[in-house]
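Long-time lurker, first post. I've been practising inverse folding by hand and with some scripts of my own, and I keep getting stuck on stretches where the structure tokens seem ambiguous. Below is the full token string for one chain I'm working on. Before anyone asks, I'm not after the true native sequence, just a reasonable design that respects the backbone. If someone could post their per-position residues I'd love to compare against what I wrote down in my notebook.
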């Protein structure tokens, strides 16, 4: 799959906000185009002794409001277009929740589960070395994303530190023993659950009777499942790349996590029914949380979605066509740039802690995360209600406007 659709679609959401803000074509071009696009070839010696060349990317979209910030994904669909679109989402996201970063994204086109640990280590180091001249604690700070984790961040931090001296603040999402923040691993999922609790409160839903379906059982999806399960929500279904599992009476997520310590996939979990990812997305539920990959809700399945509320844990899981269909059906959608901002919020805390060589207790991390994400939620809700627009449009308007203000002050526009 090519990322060209993702760029066009993300820019459609941007253009809606730009029209509301009456931005001219020149300003739009400044804000849409990434400022740096780097593509690197990464030759790696495989365990077999063969040499294989992978392709890596780092796109720096906009740093008007602070250093570039964004994850690195290891995925077969990663290409310059997809990475560029996701970098722009980071720009609007950091602005929306008002943390002092710009937007970036990186990736390597690969299938991580087909690589051994030593191959992944070599690939990550080669990538870091090749892009290191555009990184920096005040320039560009990567983080984990799809297919990467705290171990990959530890390798990146080490590779960068070998050239520049001990630099924990060069990446976030590191292991705590290397300067990572407590609460970073759960932060994206926890942020999603704070937003879900707020929506449930507004809709007067009682968590005990509220059903949740989650696509993705990785870093984001599994934490959402665990925290929601512990809060009393009924987790009716969850999936991974191999398919989904379903239980009408709710899955026990503590047992599922235990099951995953000795099984690679959720498929086969006792007392659950196996379903496809497509069937999972179409389940009847209160909250549907896509937390895996892009564009999974599109014109082929939007009409079949039965959820009352969709919270976007993943980046760009809903195409604009599907967004229109769902809005017309009255499905409430909490957009990615708000819903999954918990990860970058706690990355900001981690970076701050690294700059001061200081560690915050977990209570402070979760309290400040909750405050910042709910402030973002309330600002979006207020604008959506006063202008009678979708939460997505409101979120983009707030995010884009903050970048416009900073860009104008810095002289990037011809004004
Ligand atoms: P991950 O690699 O830890 O987990 C991804 C999950 O999705 C896995 O369970 C995988 O099996 C599943 N998956 C992969 N391909 C799939 C497919 N074709 N169909 C269904 N399921 C599939 O990744 P993650 O870090 O949890 O990221 C998930 C999403 O959340 C991505 O869109 C990412 O950009 C977004 N996100 C992540 C963070 C973060 O802190 N990790 C922050 C913000 C947004």
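-- Answer (accepted) --
I ran through it position by position. Result:
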């Amino acid at each position: 799959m090519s990322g060209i659709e993702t760029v066009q679609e993300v820019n459609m959401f941007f253009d809606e906000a730009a029209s509301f803000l009456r931005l001219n074509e020149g300003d739009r071009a400044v804000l849409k185009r990434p400022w740096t696009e780097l593509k690197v070839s990464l030759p790696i010696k495989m365990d077999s002794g063969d040499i294989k060349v992978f392709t890596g990317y780092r796109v720096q979209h906009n740093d008007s409001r602070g250093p570039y910030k964004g994850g690195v994904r290891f995925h077969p669909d990663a290409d310059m277009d997809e990475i560029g679109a996701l970098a722009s989402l980071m720009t609007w996201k950091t602005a929306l929740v008002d943390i002092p970063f710009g937007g970036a994204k990186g990736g390597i086109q690969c299938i991580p589960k087909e690589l051994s640990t030593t191959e992944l280590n070599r690939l990550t180091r080669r990538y870091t070395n090749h892009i290191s001249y555009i990184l920096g604690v005040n320039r560009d700070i990567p983080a984990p994303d799809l297919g990467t984790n705290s171990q990959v961040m530890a390798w990146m931090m080490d590779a960068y530190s070998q050239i520049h001296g001990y630099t924990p603040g060069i990446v976030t999402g590191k292991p705590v023993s290397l300067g990572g923040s407590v609460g970073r691993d759960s932060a994206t999922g926890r942020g999603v659950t704070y937003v879900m609790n707020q929506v449930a409160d507004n809709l007067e839903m009682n968590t005990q009777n509220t059903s949740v379906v989650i696509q993705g059982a990785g870093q984001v999806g599994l934490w959402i499942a665990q925290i929601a399960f512990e809060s009393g929500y009924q987790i009716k279904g969850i999936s991974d790349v191999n398919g989904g599992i379903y239980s009408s009476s709710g899955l026990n997520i503590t047992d599922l996590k235990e099951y995953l310590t000795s099984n690679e996939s959720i498929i086969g979990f006792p007392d659950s029914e196996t379903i496809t990812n497509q069937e999972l997305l179409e389940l009847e539920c209160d909250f549907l949380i896509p937390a895996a990959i892009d564009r999974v809700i599109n014109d082929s399945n939007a009409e079949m979605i039965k959820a009352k509320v969709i919270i976007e844990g993943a980046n760009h899981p809903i195409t604009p066509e599907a967004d229109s269909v769902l809005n017309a059906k009255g499905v409430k959608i909490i957009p990615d740039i708000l819903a999954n901002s918990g990860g970058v919020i706690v990355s900001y805390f981690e970076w701050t802690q690294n700059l001061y060589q200081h560690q915050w207790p977990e209570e402070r991390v979760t309290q400040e995360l909750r405050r910042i994400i709910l402030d973002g939620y309330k600002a979006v809700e207020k604008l959506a209600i006063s202008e009678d627009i979708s939460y997505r449009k409101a979120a983009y308007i707030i995010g884009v406007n903050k970048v416009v203000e900073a860009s104008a002050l810095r002289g990037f526009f011809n004004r």
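A couple of notes from the structure itself: The two ends are 40 Å apart (CA to CA). Residues 17 and 393 are 6 Å apart (CA to CA). Happy to go over any region you disagree with.
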